[in-house]
């Protein structure tokens, strides 16, 4: 109907434009001039629908649930525009999902590159106009399927391709002098997400509904799996049983810790199963997994970066040596919380020690490397391999017979308590591994460190009971340490 009326009654073109406003298609728009000669939009166009084009783009690193009306709930991966920074919060507009604004803690987000769209299901990089048509017209896609791709005719620009019933329409996304994006003059948007959100709701302006992102017909990729090229290793932090640990940057801006797994020592066939378990473990006292690179070698396990490093090294530093017993007890309580969560989930750590607890700049403690010990090859993690097994942290039944359980983790926690109150001193100092096992079998137990309260030492001795069944649970340890901690604080006040 529209083409017929426009052709027969051309003198009413102004009226037809009001009824059927049309976006400029990629076919109909002439090549844009270069950036130096690009004509300015009319002044009115710059004053309508102009979100702040200079706002900073962020990406949510973790889930956050709003606790009051002023806060904004976000999910990991959500993209946000920070309209204002307010102390430890940003006041942001969410671009993913239903648009909304509110406060989000700044430590839950990281700055993102505004040109990075690879995580969006509708963005297809490296495909041509012809390939976009073939993909959208394939049986996997229905009318209303759409995608955005780099423009072939405008360097640095984008094109929107949308499937109608039997064909594909292409629209060029233009860039205004201010940096905003638009399909139609006068309707400016700060980014592609905002543009799509608007035209999904107002699709009649382009006469083509935007119903669902184009199906790629590729196998669905694990959201945790990232290409190794996204991570730059900057500084080696240490080396342990499982490989090297590096400080790195993710996508050039997000600080992370990267564990580079030694393939020669690791049961790589079991790694995928273990990584699946790591993804399901989420607790504020466990180090948070960000991503993995398990395709090819070396394997990367990428986690949050903790500013003060591992607890053993921190306690031995001048800053750590000056800590008071209540602060040391606070470390113990935090580790007990994390281990209690693992206990509830029936996860055995197998290598609990101060070196595998990480400390943040705010003195928060998080347990790391949980579950990885089971992936080590038998000839590495066994008594016959000498110093490879951490005998001085390992329960006798685990060191002698490889019987690991939550109660063997409790023994290790007792050793960790000793490390904490001895300010990082190595347990059984001066003894060899063989001598240590001999002395333990004869009933010897580590003495009470000078800074350790007597009540805490009694808990240590409970952790070192010869019979695993007689050792307390982590839930009990968490509760008892919490009571001692509160009493110690009350005594100081």
Automatic annotation (TrEMBL):
GO cellular component, one term: cytoplasm
InterPro entries: Kinase-like_dom_sf, Non-receptor_tyrosine_kinases, Prot_kinase_dom, Protein_kinase_ATP_BS, Ser-Thr/Tyr_kinase_cat_dom, SH2, SH2_dom_sf, SH3-like_dom_sf
Ranges of residues in domain Protein kinase: 231-488
Location of the region described as Disordered in the Swiss-Prot/TrEMBL record: 27-48
PROSITE patterns, per database record: PROTEIN_KINASE_ATP, PROTEIN_KINASE_DOM, PROTEIN_KINASE_TYR, SH2, SH3
Pfam families xref list: PK_Tyr_Ser-Thr, SH2, SH3_9
Keywords: ATP-binding, Cytoplasm, Kinase, Nucleotide-binding, Phosphoprotein, SH2 domain, SH3 domain, Transferase, Tyrosine-protein kinase
Class of the enzyme per the UniProt entry, highest EC level: transferase
EC number(s) from the headed UniProt entry: 2.7.10.2
Top-level taxon of the source organism: Eukaryota
Domain SH2 span(s) in chain numbering: 122-214
Sequence positions that bind ATP: 259
Molecular functions (GO terms): ATP binding; non-membrane spanning protein tyrosine kinase activity
PANTHER family in UniProt: TYROSINE-PROTEIN KINASE
Reported function: Non-receptor tyrosine-protein kinase which phosphorylates DOK1 on tyrosine residues. Also phosphorylates KHDRBS1/SAM68 and VIM on tyrosine residues. Phosphorylation of KHDRBS1 is EGF-dependent. Phosphorylates OTUB1, promoting deubiquitination of RPTOR.
Assembly behavior: Interacts (via the SH2 and SH3 domains) with DOK1. Interacts with KHDRBS1/SAM68 and VIM.
Protein's name according to its UniProt entry: Tyrosine-protein kinase
Species for this entry: Castor canadensis
Gene name of the record: Srms
């Amino acid at each position: 109907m529209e083409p017929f009326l426009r052709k027969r009654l051309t003198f009413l073109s102004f009226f037809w434009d009001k009824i059927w406003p049309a976006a400029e298609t990629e076919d109909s728009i002439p090549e844009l001039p270069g950036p130096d000669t690009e004509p300015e939009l009319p002044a009115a166009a710059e004053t309508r629908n102009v979100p702040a084009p200079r706002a900073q783009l962020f990406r949510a690193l973790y889930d956050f649930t709003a606790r009051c009306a002023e806060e904004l709930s976000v999910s990991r991966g959500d993209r946000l525009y920070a309209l204002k920074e307010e102390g430890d919060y940003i006041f942001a507009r969410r671009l993913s999902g239903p648009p909304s604004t509110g406060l989000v803690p700044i430590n839950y987000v990281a700055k993102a590159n505004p040109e990075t769209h690879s995580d969006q299901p509708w963005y297809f990089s490296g495909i041509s106009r012809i390939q976009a048509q073939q993909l959208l017209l394939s049986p996997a896609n229905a009318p209303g399927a759409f995608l955005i791709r780099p423009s072939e005719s405008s360097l640095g620009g984008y094109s929107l391709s949308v499937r109608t019933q039997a064909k594909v329409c292409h629209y060029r996304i233009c860039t205004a002098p201010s940096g905003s994006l638009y399909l139609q003059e006068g309707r400016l948007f700060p980014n592609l997400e905002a543009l799509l959100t608007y035209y999904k709701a107002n699709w009649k302006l382009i006469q083509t509904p935007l119903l669902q992102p184009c199906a790629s017909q590729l196998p669905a990729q694990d959201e945790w799996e990232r290409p190794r090229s996204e991570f730059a290793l900057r500084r080696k932090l240490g080396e342990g049983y499982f490989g090297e640990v590096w400080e790195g940057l993710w996508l050039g801006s997000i600080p992370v810790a990267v564990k580079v797994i030694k393939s020669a020592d690791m049961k790589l066939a079991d790694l995928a199963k273990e990584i699946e378990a790591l993804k399901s473990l989420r607790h504020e006292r466990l180090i948070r997994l960000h991503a993995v690179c398990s395709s090819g070698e070396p394997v990367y396990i990428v986690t949050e970066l903790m500013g003060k490093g591992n607890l053993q090294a921190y306690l031995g530093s001048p800053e750590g040596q000056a800590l008071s017993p209540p602060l040391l007890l606070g470390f113990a309580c935090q580790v007990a919380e994390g281990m209690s969560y693992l206990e509830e989930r029936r996860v055995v750590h197998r290598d609990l020690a101060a070196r595998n607890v990480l400390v943040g700049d705010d003195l928060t403690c998080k347990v790391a490397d949980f579950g990885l010990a089971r992936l080590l090859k038998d000839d590495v993690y066994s008594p016959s391999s000498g110093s490879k097994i951490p005998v001085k942290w390992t329960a006798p039944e685990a060191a002698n017979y490889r019987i690991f359980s939550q109660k063997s983790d409790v023994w290790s926690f007792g050793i960790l308590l000793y490390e904490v109150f001895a300010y990082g001193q190595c347990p059984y100092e001066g003894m060899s591994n063989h001598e240590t096992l001999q002395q333990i079998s004869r009933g010897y137990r580590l003495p009470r460190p000078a800074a350790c309260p007597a009540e805490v030492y009694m808990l240590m001795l409970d952790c070192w009971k010869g019979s695993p069944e007689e050792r307390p649970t982590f839930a009990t340890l968490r509760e008892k340490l919490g009571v001692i901690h509160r009493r110690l604080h009350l005594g100081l006040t």
